[in-house]
Amino acid sequence: MNRRVNEIGLLIQAIVAMTRRPPPLRRIVREVFSCGNRSIVFVCVTMAFFGMILVYEGCMQALALIPDLSSAGPATIRSTIRVFGPLMAGLMVSFRVGAGIAAEAGTMVVTEQDGALLVSGSSPAEWLVAPRLVACIIAVPALTVVGCLAGILAGGALGVGWFGIHPSDFFSLSMVDRGDAAVCAAKSLLNGMAIPVFAAAAGLNTRGGSEGVGVAATSAVVRSCVAVAVIEFLVSTVARVAGA
Amino acid sequence: MGLTSNAATTVLETTGAMAVTSWTALTALVRGRAGRRQALRQIAIVSVDSLPVLVLISLLSGFVMVLESASYVESLGAFSLMGWAFGLVTLSQLGPVLVALMFAARAGARTTAELGAMAVTGQLDALRLLGIDPVGYLAAPRFLAMIVMLPLMTALCDAIAIGAGAVGAAVVVGLGPALFLQSIAQGGLMDEFLLGIARTFLFGGAIAAVSCTFGFRVRGGAAGAGRAVNDCVVVSALAVFVIDLIFTIAVL
User: Fold this and answer.
1) How far is CA A58 from the centre of its chain?
2) How sure is the predictor about B2, in pLDDT bands with cuts at 50, 70 and 90?
């Protein structure tokens, strides 16, 4: 097993393996739990802080120009849904689960369990990646939605409580349209596909015994974060060209 | 109930351990006990290690900011404000926070993995046996490297993101780069830039405290080191957001 695993190849292998033999439901549920439920508090807390920072900074800067904060809420909501929500939630999920996936994959490589999988007619793509791929495609969009809500609610609490914005002014969807929701959905779905694949690929490329597992775990986090940023860029470009 | 009190104990214990590590490392630094060669080596490692990913992230986020603000700018016809708004968001919040997060994922995780490997293989005990305090000897140069390099790299990444924004604005809305840069330069954003950099000293210190503490506390072989790396990036990210909110409210 000295071939370098490449991310696109691994994704295709996992999808092929999935269509041939879908992963058992119990396994998917377990992975959704370990990716989704274990990250939800972390994602909500970080997004809440980010939402408050966004609103505070935005309101202070706006007050220096115009004493009117009525568009602070809608602008916060739109930018959270379109840009910051998918980006920050994607980064936070990478932080929370990336290292763990890579460590498990790396340990399998170091102890040559990946060879055992191949001999028994399975593959790391089928055993390791496919269930997590399904799980993350379910969990990451859900986490993104919950994270956006946490950010908007926390920011709104600050805006209403501190800056005295009327709740109906702040929590207004006047600037949000279907295009924004589509961009958010596309970004978070693609994040859910990319994070497990990039993390698992980093783990499967582990070299040099148990110390290599640590190296793989750190590079998994960085690689999946870069994948999230690239997806952010690509989807924003497509949305701009398509006029969404 | 048991779960809550367990969690509370863990949080308190970790905070305490981080405070002790920071205090020991910073006093060692102040007394000049950090070896100059060690510190220079850490500075080189930290910067070379994280620079590629930081540059990539700043380029991408610069383009994304332009792409996402393009429709606002076009609908309002506010082309002359585009550079100012971009500079404001990048310099005051997005630049420092994104750079710190990626720095934690790269340099922080690496530090934890490195110190964790030393803890697991008994090298910390070997240092203690020689009468050297491992916290002062190993953590102080890492604190210095992170506190010095994170602000410098944030400044560099701000510049790269603004460059990406200027190119992006030319491509996306056809705004001349000169006009874009002029709008930033004349926007009175020096305060935002300096405040953005000021908070990265705190971020750097926090990331160093978290990564060293989690590294030193690794138990249980390679699996424990993997868990510690995971905890390190998670706690660093929390620390960055908490510090950023407190700092923003304190100075604005």
Assistant:
1) 25
2) low
Region of residue A68 (phi > 0: left; psi between -120 and 50: alpha; otherwise: beta):
beta
Here the tokens at position A86 are 């998918």
Q: Position B76: which residue type?
A: L
Spatial separation of the C-alpha atoms in residues A16 and A196, rounded to whole Å: 16
Binned at pLDDT 50, 70 and 90, residue A44 comes out as very high
Closest Cα in chain B, distance from residue A61 (Å): 9
Q: How many CB atoms lie within 10 A of CB A107?
A: 18
Q: Chain A within 8 Å of B246 (Cβ-Cβ)?
A: no
Q: Which of A126, A125, A147 has the alpha carbon at shortest distance from A191?
A: A147
Tens-place pLDDT, residues B85-112: 899 889 988 999 999 999 999 999 999 9
pLDDT per residue as tens digits for the range B143-156? 999 999 999 999 99
Those residues with Cβ within 8 angstroms of residue A30's Cβ, 6 or more apart along the chain or in another chain: none
Nearest-Cα distance to chain B for A145, in Å, is: 19
DSSP state of A70: T
Residues A50-59: pLDDT tens digits? 999 999 998 9
Q: What is the 3-state secondary structure (H, E, C) of chain B?
A: CHHHHHHHHHHHHHHHHHHHHHHHHHHHHHCCCCCHHHHHHHHHHHHHHHHHHHHHHHHHHHHHHHHHHHHHHHHHCCHHHHHHHHHHHHHHHHHHHHHHHHHHHHHHHHHHHHHHHHHHCCHHHHHHHCCCCHHHHHHHHHHHHHHHHHHHHHHHHHHHHHHHHHHHHHHHCCCCHHHHHHHHHCCCCHHHHHHHHHHHHHHHHHHHHHHHHHHHCCCCHHHHHHHHHHHHHHHHHHHHHHHHHHHHHHHC
Residue B38 backbone dihedrals phi, psi, to 5 degrees: -60, -45
Q: Report the residue of B60, B89, B236 to disrupt the A interface, i.e. the one with the largest count of A CBs within 10 Å.
A: B60
B194–chain A nearest CA distance, Å:
15
Q: Where is mean pLDDT largest: A20-24, A69-73, B39-43, B55-59?
A: B55-59
Q: Where are the alpha helices (DSSP H) in chain A?
A: 7-20, 25-32, 38-65, 72-79, 85-93, 99-110, 113-119, 124, 130-161, 167-170, 178-204, 209-242
Residue of A53, A55, A56, A61 to mutate, interface with B, max B Cβ within 10 Å = A53
Contact B238, A42 (CB under 8 A): yes
Closest among A117, A89, A91 to A185, alpha carbons compared: A89
Helix axis angle for A99-110 and A178-204, nearest 10°, is 30
CB-based contact, B117 to chain A, within 8 Å: yes
Q: Which of B231, B244, B245 is nearest to B204 (CA)?
A: B244
